[in-house]
Specification:
Number of helices: 8
Shape: elongated
Bound molecules: zinc ion
Order of helices and strands: HHHEEHEHEHEHEHE
Largest sheet: 5 strands, mixed
Number of strands: 7
Helix content: 40-55%
Strand order of the largest sheet: 4-3-5-6-7
Strand content: 5-15%
Radius of gyration: 20 Å
């Protein structure tokens, strides 16, 4: 049936889902979970249609400016730069940070054709220049691309007045922020270090 084949094909847009697992998912929903399948379709439609990116931090939101950016009890003077919205969730779950965020939605990766302007880095500079930011925390994953991105941001912000810090060592090299437990993230944030500039 074409419509089933179409659904199997559509599910393959998900990371790690090949033809066999897409087929298993579709037949599982048809045989055992039609209600949940309908709910999935309804949620998917709403999220894909209505979620936008916050004009201030780039994170996903239903509004022009997201909840984290509008909360008045958060510290405007600190901005934590992360690679993606999952990192924001991981840091929020650690309950150890009360500043604002800037979500890059990726990292510099020449091999994938992703450069600084694709990550909205000029917008980060503008935000630092036009708001009362005193500290920028670079909470990027310590992969090669993460390091490249951190160096680029250091250069970008070199002539501003902000101090640039990074998470304390303890984040494993090549490790992913979202895979760390809340306590490790909290400790790495608390013991963050000022980055020395190397010219
Ligand atoms: Zn925001």
């Amino acid at each position: 049936m074409d419509i089933i084949a179409n659904l199997v094909e559509a599910l393959r847009c998900l990371p790690g889902v090949g033809p066999k697992s897409a087929q298993r998912m579709v037949f599982h929903l048809l045989q055992h979970s039609r209600d949940r399948g309908l709910r999935l379709a309804a949620c998917l439609e709403i999220v894909m249609r209505d979620v936008v990116q916050c004009v201030s931090c780039n994170n996903y939101t239903l509004h022009h400016v997201c909840d984290l950016c509008t909360q008045i009890d958060r510290n405007d003077a600190i901005v934590c730069v992360v690679e993606n919205p999952l990192d924001v969730m991981a840091i929020e779950q650690s309950h150890s940070y009360n500043g604002k965020y800037y979500v890059l939605m990726g990292k510099i990766s020449p091999i994938d054709g992703i450069g600084p302007s694709d990550l909205g880095l000029p917008k980060l500079l503008e935000r630092v220049m036009t708001s009362p930011v005193q500290e920028v925390i670079l909470a990027l994953n310590p992969s090669v691309e993460g390091q490249t991105t951190m160096h680029y941001i250091q250069e970008l912000l070199k002539h501003t007045k902000v101090s640039i810090t990074q998470l304390a060592h303890g984040i494993p090299i090549g490790g992913d922020l979202v895979l760390l437990d809340a306590m490790t993230i909290g400790r790495a944030l608390k013991k963050r270090e000022i980055i020395d500039f190397v010219d």
